[in-house]
Design goal:
Number of strands: 5
Keywords: ATP-binding, Nucleotide-binding
GO molecular function: ATP binding
InterPro entries: BrxD, P-loop_NTPase
Number of helices: 19
Helix content: 40-55%
Region (Disordered): 406-427
Radius of gyration: 24 Å
Pfam families: BrxC_BrxD
Strand content: 5-15%
Order of helices and strands: HHEHEHHHHHHHEHHEHHEHHHHH
Amino acid sequence: MNAIRRKDRDLIVQALSAGVVPRVGLRHIQVGRSREVEALVRDIDRIADAGSAMRFVIGEYGAGKTFFLNLVRLIALERKLVTVHADLAPDRRIHATGGQARGLYAEAVRNMATRTRPEGGALPSVVERFVTECVREAEDAGSPVERVIDRRLAPLLDMLGGHDFACVLKAYWRAHEDGDDALKAAALRWLRAEFPTKTEARQALPVRSIIDDADVYDTFKLLSGFVRIAGYAGLLVVFDELVNLYKLQSAQARNQNYEQILRMLNDVLQGNVEGLGFVLGGTPDFLLDSRRGLYSYQALQSRLAENSFATEGRIDMTGPVLRLQSLSPEDLLVLLSNIRSVFALGDPAAHIVPDEALTAFMEHCNRRIGEAYFRTPRNTIKAFVQLLAVLEQNPGTDWRELIGGIAPEPEEAEDTDADDELVDLRL
């Protein structure tokens, strides 16, 4: 393992000790799942080649969905895609009439990331890049800047909502030229779907509409076209915690969300969108439950059904559904080794515990909670990080004495609105 910056080390350790996915340094701890990663890399390359893709990443609570989705986003950024991501929640859905869909879009766009802004908040830099390139092209060609902008944005005008989308970008350019920070802020606010009413938007911008619940999917298509015009390879939209759709009490609300997912899936399968991909994370119940899950919607069940020939250990990674398999004990051993190296800043000479401590820790977990310790090992990872933290802060302590006092608990399916803290880190 390469040397690790202390800032990254502290962030990784802090996240793992709380049982959540680190926002940085995933490459330092990932193990396994090469086939799943290869499948998503092919999807990303197809998006970058003006294609489209949609994947449902399905796994049990604690099976590593959030970690996998974060890794996919980082790969997409390296391939020069723009990514947006959000977790679904009671106030954030794919389809709604009370502002919940607009809330999901707004959260996703606030989390917009590029390779130079991987932490999020990249919308201003993307728009600024577009405006700067238009100004440069106009100067080189001796043309008015507005004419260059109109020519570049022309493909968006044929799309639903494209006219106002282009007007807002032109307003941003004028604000850029005039140094009007208030107009800039208003343009970005419109693009983030933060105007609650059309009247308020009209007072600030030359538009007749806002991004509302009914426009969310079409606006993602607009956004994918715009980022490609701005010089990026495409747009990847990542939604996690789709189990919140499964939890909706209203059958009508669930079906409306599933109908929107079907529309997205049909567009992708039929090649009706370019440079746009979706990765959706959910549990097996969200997919398979014939009463409340995606399989309750017959059209989705027929499209998402698994390959009947992929049995007896055979796999098929070409379908829309990607099932995350359980963590193996061998993978967990490598993962514990990686975590030990993170603590040591990548220096083998600074390891807090020897190799035998890793196997002893795994044997202890196996005795206490059985095979669940590697299938859904969030608490196992937390316990190991806490063990290393105590050893680091109390020099001279014997790890053998501590291991007997650690009692990791079996993972349970938690009835929460956002399960992003459930992580297995198996990549």
